[in-house]
Design a protein that fits this description.
Layout lengths: L1 H26 L10 H37 L7 H9 L1 H13 L7
Helix pairs in contact: 1-2, 1-3, 2-4
Length: 111
Amino acid sequence: RVGLIYMVIGLWGGFFGLSLSVLVRLNYLDPYFNLVSPEVYNYVVTGHGIIMIFFFLMPVLIGGFGNYLLPLLLGIPDLNLPRLNALSAWLLFPACVCLSFGLIGGVGVGW
């Protein structure tokens, strides 16, 4: 069940990161027409990278597959400290919200 929570939050982050990637690709369609300004473009590229790593890859690969496949491979019913494991899964969503607020600033974002 905990692995499913990680997978749902990770897939949500993956769809959000994918939408930012589509926005970057739409900006490349026409060289003379920019869909977003250069400042917003830097924000979108940086946000895409951070969201895909911290909101998609880490929850799905480490949390989701680790909590689902590891007990199956080891032949155990549950991992050690299941309540702490569940707490970490439920704290993932507030952590994602806090990281999203850090991306809203816009100043100093990008390269």
